[in-house]
Amino acid sequence: MIVWLNGTHGAGKTATSIHVQRLLPDARIFDAEKVGEALMDITPGLPELGNFQHWPPWRPLVVETARHVLAYTGGTLVMPMTVLVEAYWNEISTGLADHGIGVRHVVLHADEATLRRRIDGDTTLGPSPFRHAHVEAYAEASRTWLHAAAEVVDTTDLTPAQAAGQVVDRLRL
Fold first, then answer.
1. Backbone angles phi, psi at 48, to 5 degrees
2. CA distances (Å), origin 113, targets 9, 15, 84, 125
3. Above pLDDT 70, what percent of the chain?
4. Engineering a disulfide at 110: which of 2, 33, 79, 156 sits with its beta carbon 3.0 to 4.6 angstroms away?
5. Sign of torsion over alpha carbons 89, 40, 136, 6
6. Neighbours of 95 (CB within 10 A)
């Protein structure tokens, strides 16, 4: 099974995934961003599209990597990864389903002011225009498809450990 933690920058995906992993037996974290980073290392580079998710190879490579890791390790993959384009989510989720892999899609949500405050206060990555731009894209995706396609956990007033507890509770339902 895969527990896909979606949401935009500042929602708490990375921190929450660590706690979800601790709460689920045989869970491993797989950050699909690493697939994008591998594609970014191709020289000469792939076309500049502003986001590695726009490169057509990224989505099937995420599916295949997750499939092979699960076949090798079993258990659960916890995947903290923002996907705000519905067609991309459909491609990934359909690809996983075609391999018989169950996906629990959970969106970690926080209000805009909280997201922006968290992005600005991030001592590891620091504030960035790229991360701030995704707040608006997230709001649009939330209104049009994302919240309807997932279980939503509001992290506005939660610690990552509390958010993880809510995620795991929903998995048991």
1. -75, 110
2. 12, 19, 19, 18
3. 99
4. 156
5. positive
6. 17
Angle at 52 between CA 46 and CA 57, to 5 degrees: 70
Q: What is the 3-state secondary structure (H, E, C) of the chain?
A: CEEEEECCCCCCHHHHHHHHHHHCCCEEECCCHHHHHHHHCCCCCCCCCCCHHHCCCHHHHHHHHHHHHHHHHCCEEEEECCCCCHHHHHHHHHHHHHCCCCEEEEEEECCHHHHHHHHHHCCCCCCCHHHHHHHHHHHHHHHHHHHHHCEEEECCCCCHHHHHHHHHHHHCC
Tokens 């500049």, residue?
Answer: 48
- Write the pLDDT tens digit of every residue in 6-32: 999 999 999 999 999 999 999 999 999
* pLDDT one-digit tens code per residue, 126-157: 888 889 999 999 999 999 999 999 999 999 99
Global model pTM greater than 0.85:
yes
Kindly list the structural domains of the chain, giving each domain's residue range(s) and its CATH number in brackets, ordered by start. Answer: 2-164 (3.40.50.300)
Distance, in Å, from the CA atom of 17 to the CA atom of 28, rounded to the nearest integer, reads 9
Q: Please give the average per-residue pLDDT across 61-69, as a whole number.
A: 98
pLDDT at residue 116 greater than cutoff 80: yes
- Predicted pLDDT of residue 128: 84
